[in-house]
């Protein structure tokens, strides 16, 4: 009996590769460099499965080139890179890797909050530039985190993990979500707010929503104008959740105190992006889940999702389980 064929266009940890190799024939591109579109199209031509990071887009062109494709396993919790309706119509199961990156991403989100509040990155550059010529009481004065008000936009797994960290700093926790989360309210003392009210009240607004049509440019000029002039915006979700041009304008005009970003509308960021020149902006290269243990766990989860789905079973992290029914009906 022939084994299913899986295309893996970017390097994955050995632990995940071994799981796939035990059950599948692998076409493997052993590099972290971006994969050209034509190589993706060639790679999926006879593939039953596709294991990818979120920078690879699975769109109509990819699907048209992949008549045998049954499973797409995303090494990420978000899956805005996948055309889920098209996958479902074709009976192709899509999976993601939730849970394993929750605490790591929450650590990074809270690190961004701390860094922008206490001007950590700005102060580091100041020392390394040789400009520090002695102590002054006004030198690099920042904002207290302990006892401040945090507004979490997106109270899912990661949002709740950030809220748990905020409790350790005795912060007042506000949240906005598509639907109320009574569990978070009871366990974390979180207070639900409509988005506009959260923006008006919070000292730190932390974005942790998935990217959907509803959340694209969720934070624009109108929303930024609602924030307090001494408040900070932290985006650890997806770049297009924020209207970047509106954010740049708000920062230039001093309508908010600063921003800390791990994600951007266009990645990688262009060298002439004004955000890179602003002292009151912390910019990281999309490293929310970037610890060795977490990246291994994500890839292993993706490999197990793939093996399970190719065996005809429902994988534990299927984002469109109805695709299995679609395939069964064909």
TrEMBL record:
Oxidoreductase listed as a keyword: yes
Residue intervals of the D-isomer specific 2-hydroxyacid dehydrogenase catalytic domain: 10-320
Record-linked InterPro entries: D-isomer_2-hydroxyacid_DH, D-isomer_2_OHA_DH_cat_dom, D-isomer_DH_CS, D-isomer_DH_CS1, D-isomer_DH_NAD-bd, NAD(P)-bd_dom_sf
Single GO molecular function: hydroxypyruvate reductase [NAD(P)H] activity
Pfam annotation, one family: 2-Hacid_dh_C
Domain D-isomer specific 2-hydroxyacid dehydrogenase NAD-binding span(s) in chain numbering: 110-288
Keyword set, alphabetical order: Oxidoreductase
The keyword Oxidoreductase is assigned to this record: yes
Cellular component terms (Gene Ontology): cytosol
Top-level lineage group: Bacteria
Similarity section: Belongs to the D-isomer specific 2-hydroxyacid dehydrogenase family.
Cited PANTHER family: 2-HYDROXYACID DEHYDROGENASE-RELATED (PTHR10996), GLYOXYLATE_HYDROXYPYRUVATE REDUCTASE B (PTHR10996:SF283)
Protein name: Glyoxylate reductase
Organism whose genome encodes this protein: Alicyclobacillus macrosporangiidus
Organism ancestry: Bacteria, Bacillati, Bacillota, Bacilli, Bacillales
